[in-house]
Write the structure tokens for this entry.
Amino acid sequence: MRRKQEVTLTSAIADRIIALLERGPDDPEAWQRHMSELEAECGPEAYTMLLFVLTQLEFPGDKAREHWARVLRQWEELRGGLGEGVDLRVAVLHYFLRIQRKLRNPAIVEIKILRKTQDSVIYDELTRLYNFRYFQDRIRTEARRADRYGAPLTLLMVDADDFKAFNDTRGHLAGNMALRRLASVLKRTVREVDVVARYGGEEFAILLPNTPKLGALQVAEKVRQAVEKARIGRGEDERARGITVSIGVASLPGDATEAQELVDKADRALYLAKSLGKNGVKPFSDERREFNRIEASLVGRFNLIAVQSHPLTTLNLSEGGILFLTDKPLSAGSLVRVNLGLRASADTIECVVRVVRVTEAAAGYEVGAQIVHMPKPHQRRFRFFLRELRTTDSPPAPRSRRRGEPPADGRDAPSA
């Protein structure tokens, strides 16, 4: 049997409904208009949450909508008989006491108490930002809204650089104070309509409704600079290293089609920002190909650290990426320095690549890597070599693949 879903005040819909109860409206027509807008964005669960907030009774969406329609009719009748002073809560109580008889011991909850209760379950206690549960609910709501209205939605995943080391050397009290200050900087740097949440530990999420990716990158850079200028954790010691942040950026609909995919893409961009030196902003890129790939079997070496060198053999390459075989397992996102011999002579090029994907092959590991840096003299030699390969009638033959090893077709080197 399907387990009944628990309705809680952590919902972003509850936040909207409580705000409506705090400021009005005070007539059936206006309430119906607001609820219709909420239903368009969130579905019939809007009615479920409205009745739960007012009565603590749980109904499925469609059933809640039916009750709501009857409450409105009851409200109109009461206003016609008793005057316009009858508010929504009186109408709801009258309906469930006298018509449906589902409330045996009714209690009208003061809105201030309800707001205090709701605040205690949607905010992170340490930073006073929205918590993870609220963020999960809100991003789904905003993604549905963006899809319905064709509006862009961008997510920034923000991580405090080297925070564990800061915590270990300065202590947890200093760490907590730093997180509070960081939260304050994030909150005041973005708009009121933006959603800033503590995602977990020293990681934060900033949801930017109706914001395209280019604009979001500008916001992300503004956030990064604001954190750097805040000198968090430095105090009076000018030599102390302050807190900085790395930020990953992803958008709907360009990078993802739904909420969880958006989180995954922004998180991948954050990982790249961390791997490229931290204190930076990186957008998610699907690494669509920008260069033609050419099959070539070149022998070279790569270094993970200065004292270790490992052999590699290329399968194909372009001006933006390399696909190669090696017996060394690598991690996606890692940076390696590659040295390739272009010909039998001593003509070589050097570059730094970022590992994009790693697949086990019969001969070891097949690695797709994106070129992120190449000195200009090497760029010229590399491009000249690629032009030669394109124009020659007999390009260098790729090495023969061992049985069971997949072909390189369709698994080419990623481009920049």
Notes: Confidence is low (pLDDT under 50) at residues 1-7, 393-411. The CA atoms of residues 303 and 309 lie 5 Å apart.
